[in-house]
Amino acid sequence: MARGNTRQRIQDVALGLFAEQGYEKTSLREIAEHLDVTKAALYYHFKTKEDIIIGIFQDLTRPVDELIDWAREQPRTLEVREEILRRYQESLIGAYPLFRFMQENQAAVRELSIGLTFKERMLELSGLIQEPDFTVLDRVRCVSAIFTLHAGMFFMDNVEGDSEEKREAVLEVALDLLSQAHGGPVAGA
Description:
The protein is mainly alpha-helical and 189 residues long. 75% of the residues lie in helices and 0% in strands.
């Protein structure tokens, strides 16, 4: 991240340390040392580690919030829902450091306020790509489409191949699940 101001530098360093060492094992003192500032200077911007992660979460998930706001105003068509998945994948790519932190620190995230906020966003996003009268199977397909995008961020790193090609493949699988939920062809049928 090429962000310049002190608050952003603190967030960037903290997020790196949280992902590398774990949220619980990283202290404010260590963050200050990595920034070569005093703890008092750090406290000026953030009083606690949770304040830092909340700030990061708000900054990096803003595109998801904007996507949800946009999606609420759109017609409930398959084409719009496909666009929601495309835009969501882009949001995930932009917030990769945050999602890496959340993946590596799941226990801590459950205890932090961002855990509940993230869950609420995921529930709203999944509601925007499905119909209230969907069968359980089609609801599972829609939720799985979203989590296919999540899994693709982390697990495809271990799969050989061009990163853009892998991203496109993950999106294609997510879109296929969405299409099936909306009455499209079932793969292999």
